[in-house]
């Protein structure tokens, strides 16, 4: 009998949350040598060279510096800006692998960590690390702006090196999402901490904008999942409802041991809260390289034109880019199972 994703409600102890702040499975082999810069975009090679220099700097610093009070000089703070699929996450993961004792997570995961551990405990735990890597740095609401600004300020004061990736320059964070002028001071203080490295180039996953993926027949999705012992299969709307009841910090745990995810009757997401939860789920699926067998409409029209033109536009486009990769893996898996 095919298992169900909606039957999973993991309970994750707080200490285990922090232990999971490592580069995702998708980038477990990421290194500076395995990064392939596009010769047509020299900024990619420049970014690799700079982050390799940062790794050398951090490796050369005495370990006691990170455990014994504040640094005497300003800590390293680098901000990788660029579009989707130019290798920012690969480079960030490569840096985290190089620097022993570093922590790695997405912006959303750090806000979830604060929610789980509390602000003071999070600062205490992270202040003992040489490097904090923050992927997909996005400010979605005023509360997150203040929270992350304060967290980074305290970590920098403790001498922790900070390296972040984003699709938006620091001084533009928050634009189009809320009344940025009300939080200009916080955003400017954030921007001032980073050396900005711009990485140009097309999305290596599609070499262009994400294109719609047609859905598989729902019966084909069910049949393929029934032949895969580690697959789950659920109706799309039921998964969206289930995500209401699972904290986003536990989505990764919810997917533990899952070899493929089948989603039938996929349709347009009409509620923005549902859409944002789906984005987090897709990120965790992508981190874990889990094939997704999409039925229904596939990715065509999954997010409305209004959503794609709004303040969360880059979140949705990134999600479509990643879901397209996972859907292609799903098609391959379904074809393999169909021949078995």
From TrEMBL:
Q: Give the record's GO CC terms.
A: cytoplasm
Q: Name one GO molecular function term.
A: ATP binding
GO biological process terms on file: cell division
Q: Would the keyword Membrane turn up in this protein's UniProt record?
A: no
Which keywords annotate this record?
Answer: ATP-binding, Cell cycle, Cell division, Nucleotide-binding
- Name of the molecule in the record: Cell division protein ZapE
Q: Name one Pfam family in it.
A: AFG1_ATPase
Which N-terminal stretch is annotated as signal sequence? none
């Amino acid at each position: 009998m095919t298992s169900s994703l909606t039957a999973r409600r993991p309970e994750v102890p707080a200490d285990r949350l922090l232990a999971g702040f490592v580069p995702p499975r998708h980038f477990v082999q990421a290194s500076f040598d395995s990064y392939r810069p596009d010769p047509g975009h020299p900024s990619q090679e420049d970014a690799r060279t700079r982050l390799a220099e940062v790794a050398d700097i951090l490796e050369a610093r005495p370990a006691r510096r990170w455990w014994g009070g504040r640094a005497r000089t300003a800590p390293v703070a680098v901000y990788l800006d660029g579009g989707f699929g130019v290798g920012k996450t690969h480079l960030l993961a490569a840096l985290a692998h190089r620097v022993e004792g570093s922590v790695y997570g997405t912006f959303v995961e750090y806000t979830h960590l604060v929610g789980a551990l509390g602000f003071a405990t999070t600062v205490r735990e992270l202040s003992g690390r040489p490097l904090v890597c923050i992927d997909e740095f996005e400010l979605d609401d005023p509360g997150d702006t203040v929270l992350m600004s304060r967290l980074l300020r305290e970590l920098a004061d403790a001498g922790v090196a900070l390296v972040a990736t984003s699709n938006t320059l620091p001084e533009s964070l928050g634009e189009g999402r809320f009344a940025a002028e009300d939080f200009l001071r916080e955003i400017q203080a954030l921007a001032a901490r980073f050396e900005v490295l711009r990485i140009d180039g097309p999305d290596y996953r599609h070499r262009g904008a994400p294109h719609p993926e047609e859905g598989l027949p729902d019966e084909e999705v069910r049949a393929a999942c029934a032949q895969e012992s580690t697959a789950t299969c659920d109706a799309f709307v039921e998964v969206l409802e289930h995500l209401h009841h699972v904290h986003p910090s536990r989505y990764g745990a919810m997917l533990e041991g899952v070899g493929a995810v089948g989603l039938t009757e996929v349709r347009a997401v009409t509620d923005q809260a549902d859409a944002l939860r789906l984005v987090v789920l897709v990120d965790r699926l992508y981190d874990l390289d889990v094939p997704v067998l999409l039925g229904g409409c596939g990715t065509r029209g999954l997010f409305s034109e209004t959503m794609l033109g709004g303040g969360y536009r880059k979140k949705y486009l990134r999600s479509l880019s990643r879901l397209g990769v996972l859907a292609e893996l799903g098609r391959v898996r379904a074809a393999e199972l169909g021949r078995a």
